[in-house]
Amino acid sequence: xxxxxxxxxxxxxxxxxxxxxxxxxxxxxxxxxxxxxxxxxxxxxxxxxxxxxxxxxxxxxxxxxxxxxxxxxxxxxxxxxxxxxxxxxxxxxxxxxxxxxxxxxxxxxxxxxxxxxxxxxxxxxxxxxxxxxxxxxxxxxxxxxxxxxxxxxxxxxxxxxxxxxxx
Length: 167
Description:
This is DUF3617 domain-containing protein. Residues 1-22 form the signal peptide. InterPro entries: DUF3617. It comes from Methylobacillus flagellatus (strain ATCC 51484 / DSM 6875 / VKM B-1610 / KT). Keywords: Signal. It is a single chain. The chain is an alpha+beta fold. The protein has one domain (2-155). Helix content is 16%, strand content 45%. The chain has three helices and seven strands. It has a seven-stranded antiparallel beta sheet. The longest helix has 14 residues, at 2-15. The radius of gyration is 16 Å and the shape is globular.
């Protein structure tokens, strides 16, 4: 479930086109996104250790989930969402942007069922930060989480193993 929540947070981030005063697109290429989640359900230390033995690290204790994504030149123009709005059964509604602020509502009807809101600030064409809140149910457990997101452009050329999600 925490992986789904992290993916949801990242999805919401990537669903939202960023705009800013005098910056109408971001740099194409490889981007790194760090998502720190607060409000995950409590997991017993024994369960955490079992997950670690399987190679699964959960974002507990303030640790961030760091992912890489390749943004194409077309996606970097931010004329449309960076990911299809059906990712994990989630969509963005009430999208608004003004200056360097981007906001919207998230609605999910898949593995996670609930609603949320995002608020992003484009710091430059190579950096952004934001917040996402989500409330609902995932795998029968309540979700009431808040995430902070920091993104930075890494390189104009993407590593071969970095995914490119095209709408």
